[in-house]
Design brief:
By secondary structure, the chain is α+β, with helices and mostly antiparallel strands. It is 34% helix and 19% strand. A hairpin with a 2-residue loop joins strand 14 and strand 15. The protein is extended, with a radius of gyration of 44 Å.
């Protein structure tokens, strides 16, 4: 009995599977090729038949009514009852499945919601603000602009979308067209209105950062290059700042119109002079002036603490209080906030390093770029700051100047922020600055005081050891170096060096002092008992002075020697001292809770106390 096409296909597939599974055939031979060709023929045959069901005539030909257990027509009818009607291959190919949209707030495999797609920020439309002269009301200005009969402002009216009144009572015209030239319209309005009103244009501004500028590039050259490249107007380009960058380059920040900014940013680079400079958009981070936090403004602030009256630059005031509490004599400061020199407070030429000796007047002052030298008492002090933007050549030149100036001096202390890394003092690696600093200071009679591996600078969870202290070998054994955890309102920590003064320790104690205003004459006369002469002059003088001293102690109050080194800070009440202790306590708890479940709560507590 011949097999049906489906049964024949099944037999061929079983034979092929048996050969492959039993590893009888390691390659495709002619027999297998014939089997594959027969499978293709059977597939075409079944496609032509389109799985047509057998008719009643077919049932009659098979000699049964479809009730026999082995009848094929019965099997087809059973299959038809349990499975839906199947379409042909061509019909399936032409049918497109509807696109399934993801459900809202769907979660991924980790159970977290997918991040939201950031939408482009809408730019504010350009506006024109018209201010009337003294005595003109808002209605007068509105009538003067919108109710003119001469038709000179018809072109301007076609580009105006909305008119409203500002909080100061001026007339505001919001422009509708994106390509409307606000500067040209301002000129038209100024010519038509004349002295009756003043007009100013407020356009949306995009901040652009341009890097890799050479050291001689000026603001005019930047504006001219952008104007020539984009065919923009000079009034639409404003150079906000131009500051030094790395390796003898400069960085410029520009404020330009959004349409012009898109042209510049689309290219990615722009040629200014001989250099193809990198260009990118610089988005300003919003800051709340109520709580001093980032990410929102004061109108939407939800913090309970109002810090609007706080000073952001209180590091110098905190240093003043710490000097008073620790009874320190001298402070060497890098990147000081206070940049006004006095007799006891001196700065370097770049005003980035300072020496502060409260109540004293330093001598032999020599300010240079990057460091300042002064003599206070018997010590030669050097306060340094070498920022990261310096090139290696500039860094080496400054270090050589320090070494040349301190080479033939004794009792030298050199301290500051060098921004140099060396593995010997705890850094993760050694860079070119660190090697230069080591090689140069190796020619001096100085030693490094830094001990331990605790970071002197820390920010956003990262830190480094860049604040270094060197001293002469004669001072090394009598100097104690320590790192303080006090709150500094800065990213750097306080470093305290105690130097023992041998000359002061060897001198005799000063005689006591008494306040003559508190003298009680009767009691002084009663307590004064001068012994009888013994014949030895030196012994008699010593005994007499001892008797007078004892009588003074009994009849007068002793007066302490006042020093102007540590004058009281009037704005430091006990409440601030208690707040600082609480801030330090919460900071310790926050640092120790890293990696624990309550880390976020400790961080919020520290932020509130700070």
């Amino acid at each position: 009995m011949p097999l049906t096409p489906i049964d024949e296909m099944g037999a061929i597939l079983e034979d092929l599977l048996a050969k492959v599974n039993d590893q009888k055939v390691r390659s495709i031979n002619q027999v297998m090729k014939n089997s594959f060709a027969r499978l293709k023929e059977l597939q075409e045959l079944l496609r032509d038949q389109n799985f047509s069901l057998p008719s009643q005539e077919g049932r009659a030909r098979c000699g049964c009514s479809g009730e026999a257990p082995g009848c094929s027509s019965t099997r087809v009818e059973e299959a038809t009852q349990t499975s839906p009607e199947r379409a042909s291959f061509s019909q399936v190919a032409r049918t497109k499945r509807p696109r399934e949209l993801p459900p809202p707030n769907r979660a991924n495999q980790n159970g977290k919601k997918d991040p939201k797609i950031s939408q482009p920020k809408k730019s504010r439309p350009d506006v024109l603000i018209i201010t009337g002269n003294a005595g003109s009301s808002y209605s007068d200005v509105l009538k003067l602009v919108t109710r003119r009969q001469d038709g000179k402002l018809n072109d301007v009216s076609q580009n105006v979308k909305k008119i409203r009144r500002t909080a100061k009572g001026d007339l505001l015209l919001e422009l509708a067209a994106k390509d409307a030239n606000a500067l040209k319209m301002r000129q038209t309005l100024s010519q038509v209105l004349g002295e009756a009103a003043s007009v100013r244009a407020v356009s949306g501004e995009t901040t652009i950062e341009i890097r890799d500028l050479d050291d001689l590039t000026t603001k005019d050259e930047i504006v001219a290059a952008i104007k020539a490249r984009t065919s923009g107007q000079e009034e639409a380009i404003r150079v906000k700042s131009l500051r030094p960058g790395f390796s003898g380059t400069q960085v410029a920040f520009l404020g330009v119109e959004p349409s012009l900014a898109s042209k510049i940013l689309s290219e990615g680079r722009i040629r200014i002079g001989w250099t193809m400079c990198r260009v990118r958009e610089r988005s300003a981070q919003r800051r709340c002036f109520r709580c001093l936090s980032f990410g929102h403004i004061a109108a939407y602030c939800k913090e309970r603490t109002d810090r609007s009256n706080w000073c952001l630059r209180c590091a110098h005031s905190l240093l003043e209080q710490v000097l008073r509490e620790k009874r320190a004599d001298i402070a060497l400061i890098s990147e000081p906030y206070k940049k006004v020199e006095t007799q006891s407070y001196i700065l370097d030429s770049s005003k980035t390093a300072a020496i502060w000796a409260p109540g004293r007047q330093p001598e032999s002052i020599q300010p240079r770029v990057g460091f300042v030298r002064a003599k206070v008492g018997a010590f030669w002090l050097y306060s340094c700051y070498l920022p990261p933007r310096l090139t290696l050549q500039q860094f080496t030149h400054t270090i050589d100047e320090i070494a040349q100036d301190a080479r033939h001096r004794s009792q030298v202390v050199i301290a500051g922020d060098f921004n140099a890394w060396v593995e010997d003092w705890g850094s993760s690696r050694t860079n070119a600055r660190g090697r230069t600093l080591q090689e140069t200071f190796a020619t001096l009679d100085v030693a490094l005081l830094n001990t331990g591996s605790q970071n002197t600078f820390s920010k956003a969870g990262y830190g480094s050891i860049v604040d270094l202290t060197f001293c002469s070998s004669g001072l090394f054994r009598r100097t104690t170096w320590s790192l303080r955890d006090d709150y500094t309102a800065s990213d750097h920590k306080y470093i305290v060096c105690d130097i023992e003064d041998r000359e002061q320790a060897s001198t005799a104690a000063k005689p006591p002092r008494f306040n003559p205003a508190t003298l009680q004459p009767l009691k002084f006369a009663q307590e004064l008992r001068i012994p009888d002469p013994s014949g030895d002059v030196e012994c008699d003088v010593h005994n007499t002075m001892a008797a007078v001293l004892q009588a003074c102690r009994a009849s007068m109050r002793s007066s302490r020697g006042h020093s102007r080194h540590h004058e009281p800070v009037p704005w430091w009440p006990p409440e601030i001292a208690h707040a600082r202790r609480e801030c330090l306590r919460t900071r310790r708890l926050h640092q120790r809770a890293r990696g624990r479940p309550d880390f976020e709560q400790k961080r919020e507590d520290f932020a509130a106390k700070r």
